[in-house]
Design a protein that fits this description.
It is a single chain. The chain is about 50% helix and about 10% strand. It has 33 helices and 16 strands. α9 packs across α12 and α29 (about 630-645) packs antiparallel against α30 (about 650-660). The longest helix is centred in the first third of the chain and has 32 residues, at about 190-220. The radius of gyration is 32 Å and the shape is elongated.
Length: about 800
Amino acid sequence: MGDFDPEMLGDPVNELLPFRNCNTVSDVRAILRERVEEDVAAIVDMVADADAFDVIELMRMREFSIAPDPRLAPPGGASLPVEIVAAVLLARPSRKPDPTPREDTRPHEVISDLHERCTRLGRIASYRQLAEGHLSGEPLSRLASEYQGAVLNIRNLQYDHIRDEHDHRLFDKSTSSELMQTHLGYGYRDLSAVRSAMNEISAERMTRLRDETGNLMIAHQNLDPKDLPREVIEQFTSGIIPLIFLPADRSIITPADISGASGLNIATAKKVLNSFAQQFDDSESPGKRVFDLLMGNNPFLARPLMSDGDENFALTSNEIGIDVLRRIFERALPPNSSDMRRYDQKVRQPVSEELANNYLSTILGTPAFREGYHYLAPKSGVSADELGPDSVTLRQSANEVEGDALFVIDDVAVIVEVKGKSIADQARRGDVRRLKRDLKATLGDGARQATRIRELIETNHGVWENKTTWLDLSGVREVRSIVVVLDDIGPLGTNLADLQHAGLLPEDRPPLVLSLHDLAVIAEIGERPSEFLLYLRRRTDSLVTTYYRALDELDLYMRFLAADLYIAEDPDKVRSAHPTAPPSSKRERSRHEQSAVGTMVSDNCVELTAWMNRDKLPQDEDIVKPSMNAQAEILKLVDQLSNARNPGWFRCGADLLALSGEGQLHLLSTIKKCARSTRKDSIYHDAIVAYAGQWGFATIFLATHPTDTSVTKAKERLQSYSKAKQYQLQADRAYGWIFDKNGSLEDTFYLNSVAHNDPALDRLIADMKLQPVGQRIPPIPPSARRATKRVKKKKRKRR
């Protein structure tokens, strides 16, 4: 589901068949090694006489977009083919060992073939990962394979302005700067200066050559090529060759170039460049280099520069230090050292928590209720109910623990735990045991902490902040949780069912796992707090968790905004949970069966990427911000409720947005019908719409009143009916809306608790002659739909 090019599949039958009879991991790897050796030998022959830097720049031109607009990306473009070719070239003894004069080489003619071979190797490497995962039998094996595949194939994991903000907050501090100078030999500002200078130099050279050749073509467009003066031909040739045929000279960066463009001294520029560079070295065969790369030992992730040893550097990626600066820095810090602890306690953890809280405050429209707070949690073997408000055994039964943030919005609590630790390199290479250990220490630990306070709130309706202070949370009716991680974890966070199966997340309502970057994106494009509540419900407390898979959280979020992240609930389970709901229908069962299928979500972020890069696109481009796909009048109603902030607004907005397009239209039609009736007969009209599901039983009571009836009187009348009907249905929440005769919302009320045995309400239901519950409303007979047929009016029971 999403943007997908079928050509990317290549020849899956013939590429997968060799793995069919593999019985061991060694068998699987032998197949990959054989294909690597075959294709690498061909690649070596194709580029034997070429300058390595010419080949690499031509590959970059083939794989990377020349502009930030994702719509201009080359078909099938990716970083991995560039890295595979670079690995082959680095196995040479030098940049150009072949004696053929450079001007006589034609590397541009083999770029298409290089792309095809490298892309095929990438696919076979992915099949190798899946085959090993299948043989492993570990609960996390499939997830580990997908994660390793994401690490192998996906680059530029973050949008530039968000990544730069996070790097600035993490590394442009006195503590970080001091540690970087000590362990890397340069600071964050030095790296930023080098990166900016490289971009500036490359862009200036490309633009100059493009303009020079373009101007010559325009100036002589009316001449036959045979009539062009020799000096014009020579001038054009001197521009077009380095532009698109032999581009090494324009792509090379030197420390002197960086110094001139940035103002850094040459020694510092050289130190930064060398820290990201690899040298030519023929002590290791090209086949082994490529095989190791495809097995997960990819040196280009941290060192994307190639150096010829004469202070000439060529880039294999878009920029240096993208997505990996924090990993490089943390790898340089000695494990368990005082420097590592200082960095973690003074920088990594506090910055991560502050950023996460700021983003969630923006998303939810309210500051955190508690930040960096302490509370009492039950000791091992002690149940949550022993820590109720009347507990007198706190000293014996509880320990003081810490939580990162708690948001309380209306009657909803959102628990937040933030983890700054990175996934180890071994886990990124597919080591399932190490991956499980790292996930247990990050996602698992965060989930355990979030579940602990959730159970306390749901069980005791509050928590002890210390042994003498009780925090009353009795007004909370719904509790959701989030674990935010600093690392970009891709499929490790999207596929919650796998984490549950491995025992890392709770089976019931696991937390939503988000990277700090993805949380920042949601904060930037999300428009309504209720949207996020619905997203929490869909991602963690619905069949979406079971049936949807993705490599990136933002792909799921974009499907959500498109109203296409949904599995129809099992109507029989709904009826079992809510006996007062209407009986299940054949149509509902069929809808559930048709939607409850495995769905792999691919790239859905083209529009999002265009929006996030809008400042780099032409000003006349009309870039549309991604937004929630719902009926315009429903969005207007949700916004009206949100702005008023009356009780119930938060959950009500999520409930409204959760409705199908058909359900939203039905609700709007009901409002309009009541208003039309009031305008016609000048009397009070009301209606009820009920929605039972996995997240409870929500009911909407609405009424329209004429001008001579006050809002207060209409509200009292509707409230009386609502309390009786809500009790009869045993609905956990009821929203009341009062409209004027024109359908304009004037007032609301909210009932978020329901009695289970109330004789007074039982008598009221009998007096009001309410329709029995658990029955489907009969269809209107055909005669009632024909204008020529009149049916005798009967007094109808209220619904």
